[in-house]
Amino acid sequence: MKSISVRNPHSxxxxxxxxxxxxxxxxxxxxxxxxxxxxxxxxxEQNRIRVSRGSGADSSKKNRVGRTSIYEAxxxxxxxxxxxxxxxxxxxxxxxxxxxxDCVQDPxxxxxxFRIAGFFDxxxxxxxxxxxxxxxxxxxxxxxxxxxxxxxxxxxNLARALRQAKENDFWILGTSEKAEMGLxxxxxxxxxxxxxxxxxxxxxxxxxxxxxxxCKIPASGPIDSLNVSVAAGIVAYSLSSS
Length: 242
What we know:
Layout: E1 4-6, H1 9-18, E2 23-28, H2 35-46, E3 50-53, E4 72-75, H3 83-87, E5 96-101, H4 107-119, E6 125-128, H5 137-143, H6 146-149, E7 152-155, H7 158-167, E8 171-175, E9 181-182, E10 191-196, H8 205-209, E11 213-216, H9 228-240
Helix pairs in contact: 1-2, 4-5, 4-9
């Protein structure tokens, strides 16, 4: 599998800690490494990973004193798990939160959702194979290590995956600004798969049909909608709070 360029040292460190065999090389800029990149270098050297200086994929970029300033790691993307493995991530627990992504197009939003998932101990993420932003280097960087810490699967048919989840005692919660139920009314005492929709149009009609409930985050100000990753954080906090 082709490697990707990852430039957030938090994300690189998580990859080195969890799967160093997939970190192919570390490229350093010509200036003095900052503290986190020093940790990256130390851990890479412990795992006998090649470290080079001033030879990154974008080494043409210079800082104000004419030195190459790009720091990056070339990493093989993390392999997805199966849907069954994602659904089993909560073990025997009767409560928990999972995310399902429905046509989120911006890799920055996708990365932010993974960062939120890692922060709130979301058990897994279900990704469609099509019509969703890829897990690119940008998504890895924005996730700040979240992609490494949160298991995910990639499904050809999201609606079918949700139906399978319901057969395994999951409840499906769709997020929609058009819903009548507020988030505060949603019970916490079950395993929820929270469906997060497209930045412009929300969740698709066919996806909504497979949701047990639709809920919204009520606005208290003049702005009536939220960025999808912000909404993901609010929902995850609400459902994971006692």
